[in-house]
Amino acid sequence: MIIDRLYEAVESKGHVCVGLDTDLSYIPEFLLKKHTNISDVIFEFNKTIVDSTADYASCFKVQIAYYEAYGLEGLLAYKKTLDYLREKKEIIIADIKRGDISKTAEMYAKGHFEGDFESDFITLSPYMGLDSIEPYLDYVKNKEKGLFVLVRTSNEGAKDIQFIDTAEGEKIYTTVGKKIQTLGENYLGKCGYSSIGGVVGCTHADEGREMRKTHDKTFFLIPGYGAQGGGADDVAPLLRDGNGGVVNSSRGILLAYKKADGKPEEFGAYAREEAKKMKEAIGNVI
Ligand SMILES: O=C(O)c1cc(=O)[nH]c(=O)n1[C@@H]1O[C@H](COP(=O)(O)O)[C@@H](O)[C@H]1O
């Protein structure tokens, strides 16, 4: 099961998931000038970030919107980035947030678990129902692939729908989380967690401890660290026994050189330092 690979990566390298949400405006001028096409610019930036942070990262999350936004050149950069991560044996989470009827989902599964855009995990939205997740399950069972399903997201608007009380007297996200855990129990790895994980933001830390208890077999992808205001203390309740989740930071790492007003040529070194600091900060509180 792919979850065992991720669990072991967390054991050996820590909880940091580096987010490759590469906007052209994040890329230093000298790199923009060096290449004539966007795909080479984005790929060289990503390659430097991967090489600089890999010692401190258990996985990398690539948010596809940042690549789609640049059309075919962007998608070429996306593919090159995935190929490079695979070559380096890094674990890839493709943040594609899909969710559609089952025939369409079959094509999404093929598109992101096979071929040019193959990744290890993908993110899914469950709001069309569990039948929209079914087409991915054969890949989870037989092809070493995994899912992270949105449960309680990090944005302010999460409250608009996910926090509504159901007739059973619980929040919608609690119901979704329970359904994901029940489904996930069919795909447990040796580590005790399922290859069907849940996305739980660290920006509503208050219920974190309770969630960790009730979702004891669900591995969490935890966004919201850094740029969205989350810190190590917000993440700690969502992690258990020093494992049980990975924590994503994208802008916090990619833009570390700008925040420090550092030399643009040293953007990789700043990203490395930020990933190291994040790993240590989380290590200190769990
Ligand atoms: O699924 C996600 O990764 C995700 C879920 C969520 O609830 N909140 C959230 O921010 N994300 C993603 O996590 C990343 C956060 O980026 P930064 O805020 O720059 O660290 C982005 O790629 C978001 O799309």
TrEMBL record:
Residues 15-266 form the Orotidine 5'-phosphate decarboxylase domain. It comes from the Bacteria. GO terms for molecular function: orotidine-5'-phosphate decarboxylase activity. The keyword Lyase applies. Its EC number is 4.1.1.23. It catalyses: orotidine 5'-phosphate + H(+) = UMP + CO2. GO terms for biological process: 'de novo' pyrimidine nucleobase biosynthetic process; 'de novo' UMP biosynthetic process. InterPro entries: Aldolase_TIM, OMPdecase_type-2, OMPdeCOase_dom, RibuloseP-bd_barrel. The active site is at K97 (proton donor). Pathway: Pyrimidine metabolism; UMP biosynthesis via de novo pathway; UMP from orotate: step 2/2. HAMAP family: OMPdecase_type2. NCBIfam families: pyrF_sub2 (TIGR02127). Belongs to the OMP decarboxylase family. Type 2 subfamily. This is Orotidine 5'-phosphate decarboxylase. It comes from Andreesenia angusta.
